[in-house]
Amino acid sequence: MDDFNSETDSDYTSYWRDWFISSRGNEYFCEIDEEYLTDRFNLTGLNTEVQYYQHALDLVTDVFDFDCDDDMREAIEKSARHLYGLVHARYIVTTRGLAKMLEKFKKSDFGKCPRVLCQSQPLLPMGQSDVPNTSPVKLYCARCEDLYNPKSSRHAVIDGAYFGTSFHNILFQVYPAMLPPKSQRRYEPRVFGFKVHAAASLGRWQSDERERMKERLRQARVETGFEEEDEDDEEEELEDEDMEVGDGFEGAMVQQ
Amino acid sequence: MSSSSQVTESWISSFCGLLGHEYFAEVSEDFIEDDFNLTGLQSQVPMYKEALEMILDVEPEDDEDEEDEEEEDEDDDEILGDERPTGYRRASERRHLRMASDLSVIESSAELLYGLIHQRYITSRPGIQQMAEKYELQHFGTCPRVHCNSCRVLPVGLNDTPGHETVKLFCPSCLDVYTPPNSRFQTVDGAFFGTTFPSLFFMTFTDIDIAGSRNSAGAADALLAIQQANRDAKNNATPSHITSINGVAPHNLAPGLGPGSIYEPRIYGFRVSERARSGPRMKWLRMRPADVTELDETRRYWEDHAGDGDQPDEEDLNMIDVAEGKAAPTDRRKKLQARRRRANGSGGGGGSPMDTNGIGAAG
């Protein structure tokens, strides 16, 4: 790929997008269709956002034909990456874009949730703001509905606006079957087998909040989406608490 | 102990220097040499004696000298001391024969034994102190959760018996456990750290400001600083005179949770409704009452059951510490009574949260 980079100096640069998405650190991006890029409507407003907009666009669409010195070239290259990112944020909420990102999601290209109880749920990239240069990309776990920092520092520098605040939520609206079941299990801090009081009382308070939410949903006749759902299960849950055995979490305790 | 171990690197420090063993503290030889600390381990570790000798760098050649020393020690506190040396000698002879073939077995036994001793050591006074130094230096990394603001984490096991789970990281800011980011830690047994350590750590060092690291990390970023200020303001419904709730300072009780630290899903700026199929369901996991006195379950219970007789003393009721003596017990009670109405609807365990006959009775 490095050879390829030097090749872009020639007049006939091709496959800039290929190079871009396959270069190290850009694993989160999917390839934007040529068609989408060349439709000016999709680029509305970006000309004010990106320096050397026309040159950058030419570079991205592989029609770059402009003699300039290295510094200029560098600047255009940088603008092209920025432009690609901003178009990417728009593209991934289109039908084709969502499908492409879904494939990457299924392959866990964005990593897996570090939370132990999420059992390696695949993540989705997201931004905390749609305005560029506000905050770097974060990863969303659909199982615990929380945000995590990317493991690798080369991903931690990508702008969150290249993915946007809506994409991951739209994906699950379009593909509700991809929603993972939600778990009610939690980690319980223990000392010598005994629950830590402060953490345990917070846990009980949170469980009350959860039950209230489930009650609200039940009254609204909405599926709650939790793994263990029926009253039987709730009783079981209580029993579990009684016996303190089993699954390593609720029952993570000293054994003889 | 022996001068030779100081010349070359000891087994313990070379073990702790291995790739993936960065979380381990170096257990002091004094701790290992105290038999009391090893109670019960003999039955858990194959080739226990050899493994122990390997950990302590007791060379078979040195046995003669070692034995003399040990003999003296033994004589002091044990009458059976006379019988020991012969046993030792025979063991060492046998060892010479099988040394080559069994070395790898002994090595893995030594690692297991060291891990199990380590689990005990880091809950002891010198051990937890050593881990505190490693914590300060951020040897265990930080929480991957965005709203925990790179809070420092501690290693934890999900089981105290080896062979079940690898080591995980406990975040005091969200009270959750995470898989270490680097796969090299996926070969380290969680039992070598144990289930107790991180919680005991924060019970021991109550002065540590759990969220403290965010100030240095976050101050650089103006936006983060503003968000932080916002969050603090929202979180600050707790009366300021309260210094402790359920044994923890309010600012150290899961500072990464609560209003402002819960992800709110939005599409084009509009919140996704709870009633949507893809709507939020897990907010409870990251919730925390804005006023932490809501978590004073004992008082709440007895205020609900005011007439039920056997009410404990005022002293026993109090899970809250206040800064200025009895600054506001009465007005707190009023607040709690108002709050009680809300809390009533919570089915959950029924009965008293403190009722040990029901929920807490573990087998």
TrEMBL record, chain A:
GO biological process, one term: regulation of transcription by RNA polymerase III
Keywords: Kinase, Transferase
Recorded GO CC terms: cytoplasm; protein kinase CK2 complex; UTP-C complex
Source superkingdom: Eukaryota
Family named by the database record: Belongs to the casein kinase 2 subunit beta family.
Subunit structure, interactors included: Tetramer of two alpha and two beta subunits.
Name of this protein: Casein kinase II subunit beta
Composition-biased stretches (Acidic residues): 225-247
PROSITE patterns associated with the record: CK2_BETA
Signal peptide: none
From TrEMBL, chain B:
Region of interest: Disordered: 60-91, 303-363
Acidic residues: bias regions: 60-80
InterPro entries documented for this protein: Casein_kin_II_reg-sub_N (IPR016149), Casein_kinase_II_beta-like (IPR035991), Casein_kinase_II_reg-sub (IPR000704)
Cellular component GO terms held in the UniProt record: cytoplasm; protein kinase CK2 complex; UTP-C complex
Pfam families xref list: CK_II_beta
Family: Belongs to the casein kinase 2 subunit beta family.
Record text on subunit structure and interactions: Tetramer composed of two alpha chains, one beta chain and one beta' chain.
Protein name: Casein kinase II subunit beta
Organism this protein belongs to: Lophiotrema nucula
